[in-house]
Specification:
It is a single chain. By secondary structure, the protein is an alpha+beta fold. Helix content is 36%, strand content 17%. The chain has one domain (4-139). It contains 5 helices and 5 strands. It has a 5-stranded mixed β-sheet. Helix 4 (103-112) links the parallel strand 3 (78-86) and strand 4 (116-122).
């Protein structure tokens, strides 16, 4: 059985995905096959992407994520995004929001540059904010390193 805070964190993340998709702004939660196509297309373009380092894709225009050739052809129309969600009361600009980043998320953000964004989603208000890695670090008021260890 998972700890209740982990379960509620996953529930918040799923709700955040639904909020973004519901905005009808090109957000797509990729299937396993679509994620694989994205990983292959970015790798062929010399970009490092880890499947667990993103949750959602923002598509500009028409791209068939199930078709690897179409993904490769339209790669510049895609932005992969990692969602950082909260149900807590935070400012509209997400001031006071405290969250973690994985090494994989940072590496992928550095590799993809403007084709990777963090989507900050308040699941209580439905507000969201998109930032690149550089924009996020510029906005940060503090950065605290930590080690996560699993046995």
């Amino acid at each position: 059985m998972l700890p209740s805070e982990f379960q509620s964190g996953q529930k918040t993340a799923k709700k955040a995905c639904a909020i973004l998709v519901g905005k009808k702004a090109g957000f797509v939660v990729p299937t396993a096959r679509q994620k694989a196509n994205l990983l292959v297309a970015f790798a062929k373009a010399g970009k490092v992407v880890y499947g667990r380092a993103f949750d959602i894709v923002k598509v500009s225009g028409s791209v068939d994520l199930d078709d690897l050739a179409d993904v490769e052809k339209n790669l510049k129309s895609l932005v992969v995004m990692e969602i950082k969600s909260t149900r807590k009361k935070v400012k509209a600009d997400f001031g006071g929001f405290f969250f973690g980043l994985s090494g994989a998320e940072v590496l992928v953000a550095q590799s993809l540059k403007k084709q990777f964004r963090f989507a900050f989603v308040n699941t209580t208000t439905g507000e969201h904010m998109e930032l690149t890695l550089a924009e996020m670090f510029a906005k940060a008021k503090g950065i605290y390193s930590t080690w996560s260890i699993s046995f």
